[in-house]
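PROTEIN–LIGAND DATA SHEET

This sheet pairs a single protein chain with one bound small molecule, flavin-adenine dinucleotide, given as SMILES. Inputs appear in the order they were entered. The predicted three-dimensional arrangement of chain and ligand is reported afterwards as a token string under its own label.
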Amino acid sequence: MESRAGVVIVGAGIVGCSVAEHLSRHGWRDVVVVDQGPLFEAGGSTSHAPGLMFQTNPSKTMTDLAKYSVGRYMELELDGEPCGYQVGGLEVAETRERWEDLHRKHGLATSWGLDSELISPEECAEKVPLLDKNRVRGGFYVPTDGIAKAVRACEAMARLAQERGVEFYGETEVTGIEVRDGRVSAVETDRGRIETELVLSCAGMWGPRIGRMVGMKVPLVPMQHQYAWTTPLAELAGERREVVHPIVRHQDFSMYFRQRGDHYGIGAYRHRPMPVSADEIRRDYRGEGEFPSVLEFTPEDFEPTWQEARKMLPALQRAEIDRPMNGLFSFTPDGGPLLGESREVKGFWIAEAVWITHAIGVGKVMAEWITDGVPSIDISGADVHRFEPYALSPSYILARSAQSFREVYDIIHPQQPMEEPRPLRASPFYPRQKALGAFFLEASGWERPQWFEANESLLDGREVSERGEWAGRYWSEVVAAEALATRERVALYDMTSLKKAEVSGAGALDFLQRLTTGQLDKPPGKVTYTLMLDAAAGIRSDVTVARLDEDRFQLGLNGPRDIEWMERHLPPDGSVSVRDITPGTCCLGVWGPAARDVVQSLSEDDFSGEAFGFFNARRTYLREVPVTAMRLSYVGELGWEIYTSADLGLRLWDLLWEAGRPYGVLAGGRGAFNSLRVEKGYRAWGTDMTTEHDPYEAGLGFAVKPDKGDFVGREALLERKEAGPRRKLVCTVLDDPDVVVMGNEPVWAGGGAVGYVTSADFGYTLGQSIAYAWVAPEHAGVGDRLEIEYFGRRYPATVAEEPLFDPAMKRMRA
Ligand SMILES: Cc1cc2nc3c(=O)[nH]c(=O)nc-3n(C[C@H](O)[C@H](O)[C@H](O)COP(=O)(O)OP(=O)(O)OC[C@H]3O[C@@H](n4cnc5c(N)ncnc54)[C@H](O)[C@@H]3O)c2cc1C
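PREDICTION REPORTED AS:
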């Protein structure tokens, strides 16, 4: 075995083999892949997975990964045998709710550029003759879905990689990883030591064990998942081909089917979650056919699935269960994969909790990331650093991973909060909000009021249109009243859940100048809205930077990934420190025409327009509470974000509440907040823009000062600007104000799909239904007519000049 390598990959399952092949495409030659099991049926999840690939996913990222993967499976072959079968994928609906969900799914597929159709029960039965058409209302069919032969694909990719110099070693267990000065220096195996500065763990459900070798927490739980083949079916007698029927999902009963030759396979998620510790899984597979990743079958858990399968495919009534198993694979707290480099140890990367459906795409983005520092698609939802510290606790990982197992085929509303553990994080204002009848949703663990029952009286005399069932979930008419009253009076918005960091030290300014697009070299007391880009000029985050002192800045961020990104770029000389101040800091947005009167009445300081200008910040007191006041507003009104330490939060609320009474102060919820920000055209990172977009495309060119000097992404940004936009983020207004869409719906023009919706809401001040959308540049002109598809119907909309509300900024600058 090699004693030195550029990269050591742990695991030759589908992920490890794919990364190796893609690294070799990027020119890497000295790559070594080791697996504790024999090659290439190594005993992990890949060895026994039946290989169904349904590509459509609410996440654009996951769909893109699947699309790429499917394309590669279909072109790969091993000794003349194909690695994929494009037989199509059919998701059937038994219930009305599922049928509606399939309409939404059809919309999602269109948004993400995947051809699909909704078909009748008869058409379902034509495609899958074993189906009882009387039990289904209809189906969602994707012709490019299909089956992957994952073990074959492993070997096929390995051969391509081997031709380029990559070495694969089976029956070689990684037993330790050496770290020197915070960097990987070698991998220890039971067959010798390999010096290397780069390790990529693709160990699947053994991932937490490998992570622990360098002190990294890997938040996944191996779960048992039941799968069974049937005995041969008379209806398929003589069928020798691997698969000809489309793969089928029957999600109303959390199950799926595939045909193989003359029999069928049935997979079940309708059983209790059965977690297993990564340390308990055997590692001693030597190819006797009993995979370490397969545990003993528990027939009582499978029985309801089997009975349901025989109803949906009546031919199974004449068959028996054959070779059933409880197969293990990884689940994570939010169901997404875990990709990225360790925070603790440089050079230690992971790519785990990945399905076969996405694995080849994951190999591609990992190779891009490791080689060039930038994955070509937005991986924020798969980044291992997306979790807050509490989410790395064993109890949270277990509880949430079990929940993601239960929900794997559920219909999930985009706003549906987690149920347990709650309440998890609460701002100091929580008791007051509860007393006002807050309806709480949850974000990053925070309890976040969506609206307040106490504001119901504000509805008097206002007409509010009802919403449809889907858009009306987690919504109340009170949202409208709160939005309107904010523009008329003054409201308190709890902004505590906003990620906040303090960046300080002698090198802080230079550091932030290098990481952001804006000019931050301004006197203390100034606030700047700016962007952090990746090296390819994709928007990594939008950030508000307040210079509080010469060497101290407070940042409003989008999440833990931003902190990790900054830490990764810290200068080695120790001249800058980054501190996540979110847990100990609370914040109230005091917004509305009467905001100045309220705040001024609590302070000796001068809050007048002349003394406290727009985008200025100041340390001061509101009565006895020391605060940082920033004159900003995400809702487009006069006002301040008022920050203080968590211990004084309740006092701050009470002071502002009392001072606000004469002005009719109200508490505003997230529902109103979103409507107001959409009216004002303020973008939400992750929804409106990601690394797949540059600032000019996103309408954020104003936040870029290319002449300020060098910064991350500058060179690529100038090239991007020169090349022109690939697509544009536009504001559209629907003709029918009663149709409110939710986001991710497809946008049509001239008979073709041209983009998808990002943020959308009803603008109560304007009386308009607003939908921001990414569209092809030729459809981005003001006045251009588009159609937005919602539940299978297309609704006309027009591209509008933005922002729709107060373009002259009179209110905020008042
Ligand atoms: C019953 C069942 C059905 C499934 N069906 C589907 C499906 O239809 N479609 C789909 O997309 N996905 C499916 N999956 C999920 C899919 O199988 C997995 O997500 C995928 O195979 C994971 O691939 P991997 O390469 O990450 O992990 P693995 O295939 O588990 O590979 C990890 C490798 O790391 C090696 N390793 C671990 N520790 C060490 C060590 N210390 N030293 C050396 N090597 C080590 C292991 O031996 C193993 O080979 C199914 C899973 C199960 C259990």
